[in-house]
Design goal:
The chain is an alpha/beta fold. The chain folds into two domains: 8-209, Aminopeptidase; 225-280, RNA polymerase II/Efflux pump adaptor protein, barrel-sandwich hybrid domain (OB fold (Dihydrolipoamide Acetyltransferase, E2P)). The protein is built from seven helices and 14 strands. The chain has helices at residues 31-44, 63-68, 91-105, 130-137, 148-152, 165-171, 187-205; strands spanning 8-11, 14-23, 52-58, 108-115, 122-124, 143-146, 175-183, 218-226, 232-233, 241-243, 248-251, 257-259, 264-267, 278-286. The strands form two sheets. It has an eleven-stranded mixed sheet with strand order 1-3-2-4-7-5-6-8-14-13-10, sandwiched between helices. A three-stranded antiparallel sheet has the order 9-11-12, with no helix packed on it. Strand 2 (14-23), helix 1 and strand 3 (52-58) form a beta-alpha-beta unit. Helix 1 crosses helix 7 (187-205). The protein is globular, with a radius of gyration of 20 Å. The chain starts with 7 loop residues before the first strand and ends with a strand. The structure holds zinc ion. The site of zinc ion has 3 residues, from loops. Residues 26, 29, 113 line the site of zinc ion.
Length: 290
């Protein structure tokens, strides 16, 4: 089956990079689609212009899942991303065949997502690349996050599974980030996504301003804090809370305290993980040189 994606293309009068902005890779995460549509209407009414480079928007990357308000139809679109001749009747493989040519062509990617729990926006960046970190710091979220690939590299059976939009995109030399804009279906999340697009368009338009970025911390996850016994979080931890070695992260059903292994940040705390899944991750602030 051939999937056709809705795309919108705008070119500036001056030469520059090609920016690709995409939404709804996960169908129930709607902020990207909403924010992209808002910016497209501003561009059509000429409230906003693209002075330099080229921008392509794909508001909805997984149309069927978006229609049904689901994360995906047959499998997570953000895994094992690559084109295939035989799509085996898997809807998302058909979507990848439609999406990959756009990922192949552009220089800079902004992939807009949201998450289920409360919390503030943050950005996944790849292995340290100063240009990518600089771009991420322009987008408006206070925290940048990476390190998951290293943390799981030992027990990854299929490296292909770890390839989502950004990993696929970086293979052809581009810079790419995933922005988690806030909680699903909140107006503030749509607004954060909108602001990120505006900031990405500014990044494209004004290369001389790129060096003046806010010093948002880059947090690298270095350790998994795994739930081995059941229990509950010791407090209402928030993503990126600063923690000290020995802080009680969680308490097992038998009353045993699960302690923080070192000073740093608590990343993506989960109040209800299954046994063998993380209560959260210990993150360390990485020094970055731009
Ligand atoms: Zn997502």
């Amino acid at each position: 089956m051939t999937v056709r994606l809705e795309t919108h293309d705008f070119r500036g009068s001056e030469e520059g990079e090609h920016l690709l902005i995409i939404g709804a890779v996960h169908g129930h995460e709607r902020c990207g689609a909403t924010a992209i549509r808002r910016v497209i209407s501003e561009l059509h009414s000429q409230q906003r212009i693209i002075p330099r480079g080229r921008v392509t928007f794909i508001p909805v990357c997984n149309p069927k899942a978006f229609e049904q308000g689901k994360r995906f139809i047959d499998r997570n679109l953000n895994r094992a991303m690559r084109p295939r001749e035989d799509t085996q009747g898997v809807y998302e493989y058909d979507v990848m065949n439609a999406l990959c040519p756009f990922l192949d062509k552009a220089d800079i990617l902004l992939d807009l997502h949201s998450f289920s729990g409360p919390g503030e926006a943050f950005i996944f960046v790849g292995p340290e690349c100063s240009e990518e970190i600089q771009y991420a710091r322009c987008l408006g979220a206070r925290f940048l996050l990476n390190g998951f690939a290293d943390l799981y590299s030992e027990d990854t059976v299929d490296a292909d599974e770890g390839v989502g939009t950004t990993e696929y995109f970086r293979k052809s030399g581009g810079i790419a980030v995933t922005m988690e804009c806030g909680q699903n279906d909140k107006e503030t999340t749509d607004e954060t996504a909108y602001q990120a697009i505006v900031n990405a368009l500014d990044y494209l338009a004004y290369p001389d301003k790129r060096a003046k970025v806010p010093d948002h911390p880059l947090i690298k996850v270095v350790e998994r804090i795994i739930n081995t016994t059941g229990g509950k979080l010791a407090r209402d931890w928030q993503n990126f809370d600063e923690v000290k070695k020995g802080d009680v992260i969680a308490i097992s059903d038998e009353g045993k305290e699960i302690l923080c292994p070192a000073d740093g940040y608590l990343v993506m705390p989960d109040p209800n993980p299954a046994i063998g899944i993380e209560w959260g991750y210990l993150g360390k602030r990485k020094k970055t040189e731009l």
